Each structure stands twice: as structure tokens, then as C-alpha cells.
Amino acid sequence: MSRLCTVLVLAACLVASAAAADFVVENASRRINLKNTWAKAIDTLKAKNTGGSDLSNFVVCYPESIASRIAVLKVLIKKEKQEVAPLQQAPQGAPAGVSCYQATFKSTVKKGATVDLDVVATVTGVFKPNPAKIAQGEKQYVEYYDNLYLLSPYEVTEQSSTVLLPTSDVRSFSPQDGGSKSGSKVSYAALGKQGPWAVQQLKVHFHHDKPFKRVNSLVREIEVSHWGNIYVEETYEIQNAGSQHTGKFSRLTYAHSPDGKTNSFPDVKAHLPAAAHSLYYKDIIGNISSSDTTHTSRETLIEVRLRYPLMGGWKTDFTLGYSVPLEGFLYRRPKGKLRLLMDLSTSFDDVWVEQLTTRVVLPEGAKHIKATLPFADIQQSWDKKFTYLDTAGRPVLVLSKSNVVPEQNKPFAVDYSFTFTGMMREPLLLISVFAAFFAAVALYNRLDFTITRDEKWQEGQAHDKALGLIQSLTEYWDREADVLDRLVRLAHSISNRPSADAAPASRQALEAELRPLDEQSKALLSQVEALSPKLAAAARNHGDKSKVLLGRAAKLLSDKSDLIKKDVAAHEASAKLAGATRQLEEAIREWVDEGAKLAQG
Questions:
Q1: Could you tell me if 471 and 342 lie in one domain?
Q2: Count of CB atoms within 10 A of residue 194's CB?
């Protein structure tokens, strides 16, 4: 096995060495753009096939310090991207600390022909603050290191290098031989012919007037609900990766010194979909209201103001969430499949992400899940999430990528199958749970869980039934109380001889109303007697008291009539009978209260 590995390694070296001999770079123009908080190196090359056959592979190389931080590497021929893959081993003769990539052309380069290509590398985290620490209001200076020449396994006939800077404030650059500074540009116009692997360090020390907005960690969760919305929640840890702040920090000084804010930032701007709604912005303390949102027909722009300005080295955590409708993001595909189309990374301006995790939460029951991703180095894994009414959990596709720049915020697609039955599962489950609950309550009310039925239990049951009958009796007692009140009012109303003469007939009519009540109450009393003699005795005693009260009311009525017939004035008659009237009214009230207490047991 070890011999086989040795043979393969030697073969790879020979192939790479042969590839190096097959091209000559006739002209190389390097443009290193440092105006942003990450570097972009664009190498415009004219390469000639000097080998003995047609070629389809080209090798590009970078120092390891640059290669390890490359976020995007593109090889373009007439603006058309070519396939690029890292080489496991650098070509023969490469100096230490070099990483190489092989571009495979879509069309071969004929023998003796030339090809024009652009090699574009976007690199993050390559600026070194110097000084490493600065006080509030001081300028931020950084150093950038690279190779002056095109680091290539091929011979280079002519080449030049240009460094584009954000400001014209350059403390130093090296080498100075052959170099010149003009405004915010450092140029090496004619570097001459160089053999393969030409190495000379390029260093530029300059003022960078932009804050380094680095997202250390971003977790995006995209949850799909087939009931109308897609919920997006983004959790950030963002840091100012520039020169570290030292000394005191004054908000007053910060507010009144616009020129001293270039190495810090108080906010970040996000470009969300135009249909975004239900936005929220919070951190560990709670909701943050200091943000502005602008809706247009093309996008929703949100300006997220942080709780405090981020000076160099400072960091903060926050969560941004919003919802979008299914329309425009979820599409129907052939054979009943669905396709979710969303952006991969952050929508914030001028930030790069060290570690990106995008979690796609699909509905429970989703099957045949397949992702179509814009980059080959995205890692996929699976998880489950349990939310309301979930039983088996919702499938979660987890996408992970490191070192992500804004130009990599590309759409990705997730295809899956989801049936109408699966969409109705949760509502049906909710209905079933409530139906089962109500059925259980109804069944519980109809079941008797008594373990034993002794005499006390039977007495209690009989007592409860008897109380129910007593409550029915109270209806008759209430009507008797009404008759008693009307008799008392009838006595009050007698004021002359005609009314006194009519009083007996009125009394007989009221007493006639009580006769059917007596018959009905006797029937109920007999039932109470069978269940609870004690309650029956109390009820019978209460009924006897009503007859006594009826007799007193009849006597009051008779006495009032007699006085009126003897030509006693009505007010004098009422005065003579006032005491008896008060006592009767009080007795009626006590009798009514006694009936109510008796019905309550």
C-alpha cells in the first residue's frame, strides 16, 4: 500500500511539472483592490500553449497566508467561469508555504495558441492592524502582505502589479525599487521577465477608513409553514475586527466627532425581500426598538442600530427575524414535488461571515428531500426540531460554510414532497385531542367511582335527592309568600266602607289560589318522607307555619274591615293596627329566609 501511495505522489508531481512547462504567461497584470474590508486580487493573464499538445488545465498559486483565507476563487475566460479545484500537492519546484489550484477549461487550448483569462480571488482577514491598539478618535492603520510577482509555476514574460487603496494616506510600501505612489494607488509598472516561482514580499502600510464588520457566527433558521408563511430568524455575533480600542470611551465625544468614527460602526443595514413582514430585532436583554425600516417595491431595507457603537475589538449578539409569504419562495414542481428557493447567507452590507449555519426546517412529514447548492464546499447534515403538535419531529437540513462574503449570498433550492394529508395532520390532531378531552369529561361525569356503598353513602344519596325535592317545594312556598304579601297589601288598601265590604271576597279569591299548591306540596312531601324523614318533618313544619301566617293575615284584614265599618278613619285604623302589621311582615320575612335555608340543606 505504501509503495502504491509513493508511486501516485510521484505521478502527480510529474503531471504538475509537465503542466508547468506547457504554458508561458506572456503578460500578467495584477490588480489588488484593498478598498473594502477584504481584499480582491484580479490577475489578468495572457498565456500561450508552448507544449506539444492541446491543453485544458491551468495552475494558479498563492502564498499559504492568502490561500487559507480565500473565500471566492474564479477563473474566467471571456467572463465565463471555469471549473477550479484545489491541488493536493503543489507542482514540483514550488517554494514552501504555497497552495495551488487547477482550473479545467471548458474548451482546450490548441498547441501554439494563446488564451486570455482572469483569475479573481476574494480574500478575508488578511489585514494586520498596526498599531494593534488605538484610542478613540485615532486613525486606523493596517498592513497588507502579498507576493509582488505572479506566484506561478509558469515563466512570466511581462508583468505589472497595482495596489488600490481606500485612502491616499500611506505610511510605507516595499519594495520601493520600481514602485511609485500616486494618490491612493501604489504601482509597479514594469517588473520584467521572471522565471517560475518568483518570490518577493509586497508590503503596504496604509490608513483604512472603514470599520471591519466581521460576523463571527451566523445561524439562519428558515421554517416553512404550508399555512401561509416562511419564518426566518437570524442570530448574529458581530465584531469589529479592526484595531482594538484602548483607553476610555465617551459617547459625547463620539457623537460630536464625525471624523473619529471611521474605525467603528453604530449600525448595519440589511436588504430583505420586499414581501418581508412581522419584523423583530432583539438581543439577550429584550426587544430593541432603535431601528428604521423602509419598504419599496424591490426590497425592505432595515437599518439595525446596535445598543452601542462597536469600537475595535468589541462585539455584540442580536437576533433579527421576519416572515415572508409562500408565494415567490415556494414553487410547485412536476410529480407533486415542491421547491423552496431562499438566499444562503446574510443580507447585511459590508460584512463577511466566519461561520455560517443555515437551518431549513421543513414541515413534519416532508419526504424525498434534496438540496441544490451554489457551492461545492457547503457541508450538509440532518437534525430534527419539535414544535407545537409535532410527534415525529420536523426534518431539518443543516448547511454549514465558513468564510462567506456578500457575493456568495446566492440562492439555494430544497426539493421535497409533502402531501395534503400531511398538511392536515396537525389540525386533525388538534381536533382529535379536543374531542377526546370532551368525551373524557362527559364519561367522567357519568361514571360512579365510589368504592363501597354503605349506609352512610345511601343516606347521603337519599339526603341529596330529598334536597332536590325541597328545592322544588320552595317554588310553592314562594307563591304562598306572594299570597301573604298581597293579603297584607289588601289590608293596607281598605280605606272606606265599600272596600271593607269587598275585602272578604278578595280574601277568599287569594286563599283559593293556595288550594292547588297545598295538594302539590303534599305529593312532594310524601316523596321527601320516603327519602329523609328528618327533612320531611322540617318541611312539614315550615308548611304549617305558612298556615299560621295565613290566619294572622286574615285576622288583620278582618280587624281593619271592622274598624272601617265602625266609621273609624282609615289613618286611625292603620295606626291602631300598625304594631300587628309590622309583626306580621317580619314573620313573613323570617318564614321566607327559613325556607331558603332549608332548601340549602
A1: no
A2: 21
The pLDDT of residue 329: 95
CA–CA separation, 493 and 505 (whole Å): 14
Domain contains 431: no
Q: Examine the domain organization and report whether 203 and 227 are in the same domain.
A: no
Cα gap 436→452, rounded to integer Å? 29
Q: Please give the radius of gyration of the chain, using alpha carbons only, rounded to the nearest integer.
A: 48
CATH label of the domain that carries residue 324: 2.60.40.1730
How many separate domains does the chain show?
A: 3
pTM of the model: 0.70
Same domain, 228 and 199: no
Q: Is residue 320 within 8 Å of residue 234, measured between CB atoms?
A: yes
CA distance 244 to 197: 36
The CATH number given to whatever domain includes residue 493 is 1.20.120
H helical segments located in 46-193:
64-67
The model's confidence at residue 258, banded by pLDDT at 50, 70 and 90, is confident
Question: Is 110's pLDDT higher than 60?
Answer: yes
The DSSP symbol for 91 reads P
Q: At what angle do helices 533-565 and 578-599 cross, to 10 degrees?
A: 160
In tens, the pLDDT along 165-210 reads: 999 999 999 999 999 999 999 999 989 899 999 999 999 999 999 9
Domain identity same for 91 and 192: yes
Shared domain check, 460 and 477: yes
How far is 249 from 255, CA to CA, in rounded Å? 11
Q: How many beta carbons lie within 10 A of that of residue 324, not counting itself?
A: 22
Structural domain of 189: 23-207
DSSP-derived secondary structure letter, 364: T
Say if residues 240 and 315 touch (Cβ distance below 8 Å).
Answer: yes
Residue ending a domain, among 418, 445, 464, is 418
Could you give the strand order of the β-sheet that contains 315-325, starting from the edge strand earlier in sequence?
A: 277-282, 315-325, 229-240, 213-224, 352-361, 394-404, 379-385
| Domain presence at residue 519 | yes
365: left (phi > 0), else alpha (psi -120 to 50), else beta? left
- E-strand ranges in 329-410 read 330-332, 337-343, 352-361, 367-372, 379-385, 394-404
Helix (H) or strand (E) holding 86: strand 83-86
CA 391 vs. chain centroid, Å, equals 21
Show the DSSP H helices in 249-397 as ranges: 251-255
Q: What is the pLDDT of residues 535-582, one digit of tens each?
A: 778 878 877 888 888 888 888 888 878 888 888 787 888 888 888 888
Q: Tell me the pLDDT tens digit for each residue of 396-422.
A: 999 999 999 999 999 999 999 988 776
| Dihedral sign from CA coordinates of 70, 71, 76, 79 | negative
Strand order in the sheet with 291-295: 265-273, 299-310, 291-295
Distance of alpha carbon 384 from its chain centroid, rounded? 17
Q: What is the DSSP string of 275-302?
A: T-EEEEEE-SS-B---EEEEE-SSEEEE
pLDDT band at 13 (very low <50, low <70, confident <90, very high): very low
